[in-house]
Specification:
mainly alpha, two-stranded parallel sheet, elongated
Length: 351
């Protein structure tokens, strides 16, 4: 009996030992099955969102080559690129604000009122507002680098006929074309989004916003010395010199737009033997058809209507620019009452 009880006790112990093991094994199988099901579900969802193409081409995703995108740039490289973009943005706002120092000389040169001479500044700012919306969507389609280079080139070209203008009408036309050719902060802020995650963008965005303010302030300071010692034509030559310098600096910056970099990586992989890998833009059909071009240009204006936050922030930005340039124009009549000369008025922008 003792032997039988011992045997039964031993049997119970064995059962107790095997029970949990059996349960663990069962749980493991259930977890494995659950994981497999979850993975299959994700695969199924991905397949439904991106069904296989009939031509066998595979689209390269950001997750496939994250180390090749702007997010993976070193901190030094990111801030070097951003500093060049800072200078580009300064030059664009510099072009808008330095014109104020040409108002009196143009009024005397072409026998027009100072109010009429200010039309050149007004038309530039209005055209600049539309230029930013026309350039920005194309930077998402063909890349930040070519759009910025083309924008800078056109802006610099329009400075030449402005500097050589035989009449005030020529200045109005070239200023309008210069404003339309300015890509502006829409592209520069897009480059911030190319290199930083949304949670880490605050310092980069603040840096770029500072460039806009800095350009608006530097313009009147430099313009005061030009107005005091040189011809009014040098107001435009200085813009050309500054614009040419930042264009050369920007020429050596790399592309940051993710879709364009994916296209480049896909081409590299095809050369390496992966013949069915293509970038997102390479798989788009009729990219430059009339309908597609109009759709790209229409997109930012559609956002004004459909996205209240975009409209509200755009109105706020426009209002702040109006305040800045009204403030800039008010310096001369206010400080002249206290006997300030041209250079002294320009230096008053430093504080």
């Amino acid at each position: 009996m003792a032997s039988s009880q011992a045997s039964n006790g031993s049997h119970d112990v064995n059962q107790n030992k095997q029970g949990p093991m059996s349960d663990d094994s069962s749980a493991t199988r259930r977890m494995s099955g659950s994981g497999s099901t979850h993975g299959e579900k994700e695969e199924k969802e991905e397949t439904e969102e991106n069904p296989p193409r009939q031509d066998g081409k595979v689209e390269l995703k950001e997750s496939d080559c994250n180390d090749k995108l702007g997010f993976s740039f070193s901190s030094f490289k990111k801030w070097t690129i951003l500093t060049v973009i800072f200078a580009v943005q300064v030059s664009m706002n510099f072009n808008a604000s330095i014109y104020g120092n040409a108002v009196q000389p143009l009024s005397q040169q072409f026998s027009i009122s100072e109010q009429a001479a200010r039309v050149g500044q007004m038309i530039f700012l209005i055209a600049y507002a539309f230029g930013s919306e026309l350039w920005a969507p194309w930077s998402e389609e063909i890349g930040r680098w070519p759009i910025m280079q083309l924008s800078l080139l056109l802006v610099n070209i329009w400075q030449i006929p402005a500097a050589l203008a035989p009449n005030f009408g020529t200045i109005i036309i070239t200023r309008a074309l210069g404003g339309l050719s300015s890509a502006g902060g829409s592209v520069t802020l897009g480059m911030v989004a190319d290199m930083w995650d949304a949670d880490d963008q605050q310092y980069a965005v603040a840096y770029i916003v500072l460039s806009s303010v800095a350009g608006s302030v530097i313009g009147p300071i430099v313009g005061a010395f030009v107005q005091a010692y040189l011809s009014w034509r040098w107001i435009f030559w200085v813009q050309l010199i500054f614009g040419g310098a930042v264009q050369v600096a920007h020429f050596f910056t790399p592309e940051t737009r993710a879709t364009v970099m994916l296209d480049k990586e896909a081409k590299r992989r095809r050369k390496a033997g992966e013949t069915n890998v293509y970038g997102p833009n390479e798989l788009k059909e009729h990219r430059f058809s009339t309908k597609e071009i109009l759709r790209v240009w229409y997109r930012p204006f559609e956002m004004f209507v459909r996205e209240p936050i975009v409209l509200c922030l755009s109105l706020l930005s426009g209002f702040s620019d109006a305040l800045i340039f009204t403030f800039i124009e008010s310096f001369q009549p206010v400080y002249e009452q206290w006997g300030f000369q041209t250079i002294q008025i320009g230096l008053a922008f430093l504080p």
